[in-house]
Specification:
The protein is about 40% helix and about 20% strand. It has about 325 residues and is α/β, with parallel strands linked by helices. Strands 3-2-1-4-5-6 form a 6-stranded parallel sheet.
Length: about 325
């Protein structure tokens, strides 16, 4: 049983579970559930990440489930080079994960690989949610998840697959069915309700004001800092427009610009589009239907004073060369 190898590699070691820098519900659920699973085998693991938890849904999840996530700035000096890191919902040099002092010996992720890396243990499978992979670990190791763990994993699956409507696979459905009897329905409802803040309306308003439609592609931007999770939500919102099949949206951040890509066209891969649009600027990648990326501030500002127009023109040029069907009506 492959999952037992990970348990054996962790025994007697100082273990950290690291998510991508700005963990969303799927990343949080996956890390939390893996932490609780390792506890069943006498292994203590701490959760860590680099960036801020900047979305109401993620913060509520931490509070309601009692999850302790550690920002790296809070644990400087605690993590040693000999400590073992399990990357969850992320991969080395994936563009959204900081290289911390420990040894990234293992990875569990559901995204396509952008840059190959060597691990002692690797479980990289394309699924709708990373939480589905962790759910399988419980099933394979014959460990019953607690109500909190099962609820967290169900919530992670629902959020990353847009309530089982985006990028979902048969495997996700199987794991959803496995988790469902163990979950707390009332807690799941509480997690899913009231996840928008009044301040979010400003982002919706600005994104709508700035939207431009080119054929079947919607392009928009926010010229102010916006939580990464909200950028993704806005992309999904634009994809719900009947005339739109491709979305490119980006927003400012303290250290640069966060990009979000969406595609409903079977012959246009959002992950590939993200990689090509950000080539030379930063890093991008993801699934065929949804992807993201990041570009440092200095890379984008080199484009000139009219940053948003320049980025838009660049992305449209990539589409025109490689995916012209996205620009036709």
């Amino acid at each position: 049983m492959e999952q037992t190898k990970l348990v054996e590699l962790c025994k007697g070691r100082s273990v950290w579970i690291q998510t991508h820098n700005f963990p969303d519900p799927d990343a949080i659920a996956s890390a939390f559930a893996l932490q609780k699973l390792l506890e069943r085998f006498g292994i203590e693991a701490n959760l860590c990440h680099e960036g801020e938890i900047d979305k109401l849904s993620s913060g509520k999840m931490l509070r309601l489930l009692g999850i302790q996530m550690n920002r790296y700035c809070e644990i400087v000096g605690r993590m040693q080079k000999t400590d073992r890191i399990i990357l969850v919902d992320s991969q080395k040099e994936g563009g959204n994960v900081t290289d911390l002092p420990g040894n990234e010996f293992a990875v569990i992720d559901h995204h396509p690989t952008v840059r190959e890396a060597v691990y002692e243990y690797a479980d990289i499978r394309i699924t709708g949610a990373c939480a589905s992979l962790i759910a399988e670990y419980y099933k394979a190791l014959d460990v019953t998840p607690s109500k909190e763990t099962a609820t967290a994993l169900l919530y992670g699956i629902r959020m990353d697959t847009l309530q089982l409507s985006r990028g979902v696979t048969e495997f996700d459905i199987q794991m959803y069915a496995y988790l469902f009897p163990y979950a707390d329905a009332a807690l799941l409802k509480q997690l899913e309700s009231n996840n928008m803040e009044l301040a979010d309306l400003r982002a919706y308003g600005a994104a709508i004001e700035n939207i431009r439609i080119y054929g079947k592609t919607a392009f928009s931007y926010l010229d102010f800092a916006c939580p990464d999770a909200l950028v993704a939500i806005l992309s999904d919102f634009f994809l719900s427009i009947a005339e739109v099949e491709v979305v490119i949206l980006f927003a400012g951040r303290k250290d640069g610009y966060k990009f979000s890509f969406r595609s409903e066209q079977p012959d246009l891969n959002a992950g590939k589009l993200a990689e090509l649009c950000l080539q030379g600027w930063g890093n991008g990648g993801g699934h065929a239907s949804m992807a993201g990326g990041f570009a440092p501030k200095e890379a984008i500002q080199k484009q000139g004073a009219k940053i948003y127009e320049q980025v838009q023109e660049h992305c449209i040029a990539v589409l025109r060369e490689l995916y012209p069907q996205a620009l036709s009506t």
